[in-house]
Write a structure and sequence with these properties.
Length: 291
């Protein structure tokens, strides 16, 4: 970000990149062929950079996000990027394996985060997820040369469900940061106040609300899990890894009995692996897509 970060904030972006380099890349994807693995890691790094600039960067986050988005757009137009994260995506760009639009939507989602901290309805939250989550699935499908409308629809369901589950894991943290993703209509329906989200333990009403939200996200994930059956080969394995992580997260959240404030709902690697194995052998192969 040295060439694009305004007002001397390049060091902030550099520090975020160092943090990301220590993060674990999804275990199920480590066995992929080198080119696919490199492409996915490059996509993951760009997506994480966008999220971190929107969530954690000091200074003018809007300016940082716009600068990163501008350099990304220029790179897709053929310019040579100076940002190392964007440079990592260049091979996939030049080969036509990724498109700009999904990344543009990720930037838009994080720009929205800078001024929208509440969502009135579930449909409003779903619309946000179409910017913040669904584009990632579309990118992954393209990397595996999948251009099937049915697969795209199922992928959107999976990605939105994964985003919702992440929000339900982070209710307390988000509240502490001034953000509430629980729809206002649901808080009202269950008689939950915003102050209750900052307590050490969830109230009875909040536990009931969270059980409802977890079940709804689980149903959405289940409605999209058939995506695995449309895929073959490495594409099936990669997507299974993401779905398995979601299913294991549902289990972990349900174990809290709705008290997501007192207990960190985080699945173990063994739980994810168990679901991954089940998805590989338990979902029928119905499609002709992805190698």
């Amino acid at each position: 970000m040295r060439s694009t970060s305004p007002d001397g904030h390049a060091a902030d972006a550099d520090g975020l990149r160092e943090k990301r380099s220590a993060e674990n890349f999804p275990v199920a994807l480590r066995v992929l062929p080198r080119r696919l693995r490199s492409d996915l890691q490059a996509v993951y790094a760009v997506a994480r950079t966008i999220d971190d600039l929107g969530d954690e960067a000091d200074g003018d986050r809007i300016a940082l996000l716009k600068a990163f988005g501008d350099e990304l757009s220029a790179a897709f137009d053929g310019a040579e990027p100076t940002d190392p994260v964007i440079r990592g995506l260049v091979p996939a760009m030049r080969a036509g394996r990724v498109e700009l639009e999904p990344f543009r939507r990720l930037v838009e989602a994080n720009l929205q985060d800078q001024h929208v901290t509440r969502y009135a309805t579930y449909e409003d939250l779903r619309a946000y997820c179409r910017l913040s989550a669904d584009p990632v699935g579309r990118i992954v499908l393209r990397l595996f040369d999948v251009h099937d409308p049915e697969a795209e629809e199922l992928s959107d369901r999976v990605c939105t469900a994964l985003q919702l589950l992440e929000h339900w894991q982070d209710v307390a943290e988000d509240h502490g940061n001034g953000r509430i993703y629980l729809p206002q209509e649901d808080l009202t329906a269950y008689g939950v106040t915003e102050d209750e989200l900052g307590a050490a333990r969830a109230s009875r009403r909040l536990r009931e609300l969270m059980r409802f939200e977890i079940d709804r996200a689980a149903a959405l994930l289940g409605s999209g899990a058939g995506l695995v059956g449309l895929l073959h080969g490495w594409g099936r394995l990669a997507v299974s890894g993401f779905v398995a992580g979601g299913l294991a997260t549902v289990d972990a959240l349900r174990e809290t009995n709705g008290d997501v404030l007192a207990t960190q709902a985080k699945p173990g690697k063994a739980d994810v692996l168990a679901w991954l194995v089940w998805l590989q052998v338990g979902v029928p192969r119905t499609g002709r897509r992805s190698g």
